[in-house]
Design a protein that fits this description.
The chain is mainly beta. The protein folds into 2 domains: 115 residues, Zona pellucida, ZP-N domain (Immunoglobulin-like), CATH 2.60.40.3210; 192 residues, Zona pellucida, ZP-C domain (Immunoglobulin-like), CATH 2.60.40.4100. It is built from 2 helices and 21 strands. The longest helix is centred in the N-terminal third of the chain and has 5 residues. It is elongated and about 65 Å long. The C terminus is likely disordered.
Length: 326
């Protein structure tokens, strides 16, 4: 496991850029191999350790073998009078994860690790990991091809991994499709709005919908592949504002997953009373304007939220379509 720590990581916390301030593993202060080694550049330092060293733990998560540890940044301690000490900042603990794709056998060829950037998958609150993935039609497994024909259903799975947290229920507040990874770029298409209203399902001939929940911490839904008429590019990035609330919270106009049922010509929730979705056809479902944030925030009532982006997904016009496997 190789961890690169940028100087900015120290400066943001007002801690000197010194090798003795950082360690891999909460209880590895006496192990030299768990700290930065060799010459240190002016911009970063590197920690290299074996996957079984420095207190690293392994676990199996679906199709992945995951090695997990903690990067610990120690505060500056200033001696004071009467034998007391003053700490300028609290200790910073940052989760580190290394993902290996599982194989049927691990005795043949060496495995290549697949790294996932922490900034896109880990919330700053506790050990909560949000994700947004492209799935097959039944949402039972990942889709291997991210190429779609215009009008084809794109299935997405939002989830939160909170193994060391009280049970949480996940909601999708807003989703937007853009041509770049910048969710505020133009042109854009917002297909989930108003705290869980799948407006893409209102379009003529649309089959977009929320699927019934299988787990509280997962939510699967679909949208129709489309093409921006004003731009020839075929790749699309999808960004969603995900929010988790304590499981005991009741459903409300802010905690819902609604889609337009073309058979009954009405808005329906996947759980709770149909009255939850009445605001989907009105101006707004809350008093506050819609706002997709760049950074996760924690609210006073214990909610956790973040924006997660996946892509690029290739959405081809009909005249470009040949044959692709999923």
């Amino acid at each position: 496991m190789t961890v690169r720590i940028k100087r900015q990581f120290f400066e943001e916390r007002r801690i000197p850029f010194e090798a003795e301030r950082v360690r891999l593993g909460r209880h590895s202060t006496q192990q030299r191999s768990c700290g930065p080694q060799g010459s240190m550049s002016p911009s970063e330092m590197i920690i290299s350790a074996g996957l079984k060293q420095c207190g690293t733990e392994s676990s199996v998560q679906g199709d992945w073998l995951v090695y997990s540890n903690l990067l610990v940044l120690f505060p500056v301690v200033i001696p004071a009078s009467a034998g007391n000490v003053i700490s300028s900042r609290s200790t910073t603990v940052t989760p580190v994860h290394c993902y290996y794709k599982r194989r049927q056998t691990v005795m043949g060829q060496p495995l290549t690790p697949t790294w996932q950037p922490m900034t896109s998958t880990i919330s700053v609150f506790g050990l909560l990991r949000f994700s947004l993935r492209i799935m097959k039609d039944d949402c039972s497994s990942l889709r291997t091809s991210w190429v779609y024909q215009q009008g084809e259903a794109v299935f997405l799975e939002a989830s939160i991994d909170a193994t060391q947290h009280l049970p949480l229920t996940l909601y999708v507040d807003y989703c937007v499709a853009t041509l770049t990874s910048d969710l505020h770029s133009l042109p854009s298409y917002k297909f989930v709005t108003k705290h869980g209203c799948l407006v893409d399902s209102v379009l003529p001939g649309s089959s977009s919908k929320f699927l019934p929940r299988v787990q509280d911490n997962r939510l699967c839904f679909s949208m129709q592949a489309f093409h921006f008429k004003q731009d020839h590019r075929e790749q699309v990035f999808i960004s969603c504002h995900l929010r988790a609330t304590p499981k005991e919270n009741t459903h409300s106009h802010l905690n819902k997953a609604c889609f337009f049922n073309r058979t009954t010509f009405s808005w329906n929730p996947i759980e709770g009373d149909t009255g939850l979705c009445e605001c989907c056809g009105s101006a707004d479902c809350s008093r506050q304007p819609e706002n997709i944030r760049h950074t996760p925030q924690r609210q006073a009532d214990g909610k956790h939220e973040t924006v997660t982006t996946t892509g690029p997904v290739r959405m081809m016009p009909h005249y470009h379509w040949t044959d692709y496997e999923s």
